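Sanity check

After download, print the first record. It should look like this:
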Amino acid sequence: MVSIGILAHNEESDIGNVIRDIGLQKLLRNDNLTLQIHIVANGCVDATVRVAKEALFDDSFRKKNITTFVHNIQQSGKSNAWNQLIHTFVSPNTEFIFLLDADIRIPEDTTLQLLLDGLVRSEIARVAVDSSVKDLSLTASKSLQEWVIVNASGTAHDARKALAGGLYCARFDVLKGIWMPIGLPGEDGFLRAMILTSNFTEDENSDRLIFVEGARHIFESEKNIRDVFHHNIRLAIGTGINVLLFKHFRQCLSKDADVVDYIRKRNAADPNWINEIIASRIGQGRYLLMDKSFIFRRLKWLRTLSVYDQLRKFPIVLLGSIFDLALFFTANYLMRKGVGAGYW
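Expected structure tokens:
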């Protein structure tokens, strides 16, 4: 049994496209699978639910081995929608699950089957990822701003080792053993850490994540530096919160404590608990809430390249590092002003 989950917040203009892309996937023509497709509309005030139901009425989903669901939950937030999908909506008999954002496109009809096959073949991997492609990179004519945005991509981390929340395939028994903190802006990084460390019970094992060649999805990129900066502030705050949470788990929980049970109970008791941790750090007299390694991440990536590629990439990495420095202090300032969990 395989499930496909799409998390959507006010995506009436995009969700129909990704559902139609799924309808064209070879995975849906694999009669050896029992498929469930779940749309989780969270806090939507537009026509996301209606558009999703209309798109799922297509003949490609009218097969006896395919069941479709549209769930409409009132509380917005990706982490909460993720928790609801994994722990409430998806059948416990599911073996593998795809998680998708509602605003991506999947151009090749082999992508989902490739991801599933790659994960099934691996005895170690727990999650499979594809190539996450900016739509800007596919346009022939670019402005200077757009050229910088495209060429700076991938200089902050190795995309083949990252978990992009836009699309991934995971073993369901791994995900159902995880609860996400409510309001988390950096869901992808937190989930990756949980998977690679078996919920912080082991050292990180990067072999638990595999990159599948030939599979890709396309996401819409911001088209100017101002919008890129605004988007990356949220990501930077998410990264900062993740680091604070990891430190909190190490410092405040005993070695044999169950991190997952701790998160689940904190979520139930107070959805604002992450901001309490941020406030406590400020109360301890800590000015820098962001981890300083954030500033040097591109330079660290540059060192992994050949000398020729280092020289070729250095100008864009330098610009990116200056950009990250501005992000670092802006995100730190906003977190100290009370912007944290729930920042959308």
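If your output differs, re-run the checksum step. Summary of this record's structure: The CA atoms of residues 138 and 198 lie 37 Å apart.
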